[in-house]
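hey so i finally got around to running the thing on that chain from the lab meeting. sorry it took forever, my laptop kept dying and i had to restart like 3 times. anyway pasting the input first so we r on the same page abt which one it is
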Amino acid sequence: METTTTLTSRFAHKKQQLYLVLSAIFIVNALLAEIIGVKIFSVDKLLGLPGNLTAGVLIWPVVFITTDILNEYFGRAGVVRVSLLTAALIAYAFVVILATTKLPPAAFWLDVNKTDAQGRPFDIEFAYESIFRQGLGIIIGSLVAFLIGQVLDATVFQALRRVTGSRLIWLRATGSTLISQLVDSFVVLFVAFYLFGNWSFEQVLSVANTNYWYKFAAAILLTPVLYLAHALIDRYLGKEETVELQQEAAANVSV
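ok and heres what got predicted. didnt touch it at all, straight out
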């Protein structure tokens, strides 16, 4: 039979592995969302629905779910810790990207890319700089909104958890997401495109409104995925260990 020390060691390893995997999913999707967030696409042309969205919101639901799972098993401190690490890595990524826009382009690179597929004149260096330097405005807004949103999400989640206990996972997960993203959706666009860009305030409100309702719908529709993730994690950890980890998470409120 396995000793208590062996069981404790195995649980500690599983706990560490779970946090590592969840953190990796969180970081990759948050970084991707920041990079692709520079593009605004037409929902009308894609789905026949009114409004425009930033491309980044397409994968933010993955971040929502991962945030809630981290909060459930590792508490507010676990969420804040990975959020700060993610913010630092995003900032690092964009410093590197900015540095690459300062590199002198090779003459042959400019020459072989001097026209597009239709033979029209094309300046690839200008395109590269335009896309990534515009992203710098987005990154400042995103980092501010991201940190505010994550701290707010983690705080509201734990407040709802104190009321619901281990019941109503959907309520604390969806409720915290809807409240935090109401702030995040506006702040990121206001800072990125109004303060650092050339959008009007009306354009900010219009896109922020569409972004928020997309996130609202995604949070509701992905509730079954949240329950599936919980079921898989509970099976991986074991029933008693899951309860222990959730109790520890509920008490883990400091960073």
